[in-house]
Design brief:
Helix content is 12%, strand content 55%. It is built from 2 helices and 12 strands; from the N terminus they run H-E-E-E-E-E-H-E-E-E-E-E-E-E. Strands 1-2-3-4-5-6-7-8 form an 8-stranded antiparallel β-barrel. The chain has a 4-stranded antiparallel β-sheet with strand order 10-9-11-12, with no helix packed on it. The longest helix is centred in the first third of the chain and has 20 residues. The termini are far apart.
Length: 203
């Protein structure tokens, strides 16, 4: 009798583990990033992983190694994101929360491992394609708006468009004009490889 209860308990644990970890998908696509007051949007490549949680209708969404204008934030992870299935086979996502940052660099430390993120209504996935409207609030920089993928689901996940690889940080300067190896506390001037310069506050 004791063996039967042990076997039942082991089976239930195994089923619970399978339910929690068997539905993870990573999407790779173009991401268009617009930083407040910095002019033209920048297009790059990005990947986002969506994992179905044990609780029905809840998902974990992770922006893998998220960066903008050459500055790495890190892995930005949102949990308990509501995902609702519709009659057309889409899963629709929306959340506003303080996400955790891991595997980052100086900016992760500056932000205390947290960042405010909104996944806006209209974000959805189907098959091998994910379209997301994401807003991040970066202290000292402002709002960072990101559009991942495109909303054309008639192409079976094939994404068109060119990738602008020019918008990387070429050099970092202090407000006084001195070139430095990495960002210093206060206002930094970043010279981009596309010829533009931007000011960024590093607290």
């Amino acid at each position: 009798m004791k063996k039967i209860f042990t076997l039942i308990a082991m089976a239930m644990i195994a089923m619970g583990a399978m339910a929690q970890g068997n539905n993870e998908k990573t999407y790779e696509d173009n991401i268009v990033i617009t930083v407040a007051n910095l002019g033209e949007p920048i297009t790059d490549r990005a990947s986002i992983t969506i994992t179905e949680q044990a609780e029905e209708g809840k998902y974990t969404i992770k922006l893998n190694q998220f960066s903008f204008i050459g500055m790495l934030i890190g892995d930005v992870t949102m949990t308990d994101v509501q995902g609702d299935d519709d009659s057309e086979g889409f899963t629709n996502y929306a959340t506003t929360q303080t996400a955790t940052i891991t595997n980052g660099a100086e900016i992760q430390e500056m932000l205390g491992g947290k960042i405010d993120v909104t996944v806006k209504e209209g974000s959805r996935s189907k098959g091998d394609k994910f379209y997301a409207l994401i807003s991040l609030t970066v202290p000292g920089v402002g709002d960072v708006e990101a559009v991942f993928g495109d909303n054309n689901f008639g192409t079976d996940g094939i994404s068109a468009g060119t990738i602008d690889q020019n918008a990387k940080v070429a050099a970092v300067y202090t407000l006084g004009g001195q070139r430095v190896n990495s960002m210093v506390r206060g206002i930094n001037i970043l010279k981009l490889t596309n010829g533009k310069t931007v000011k960024v506050m590093n607290k």
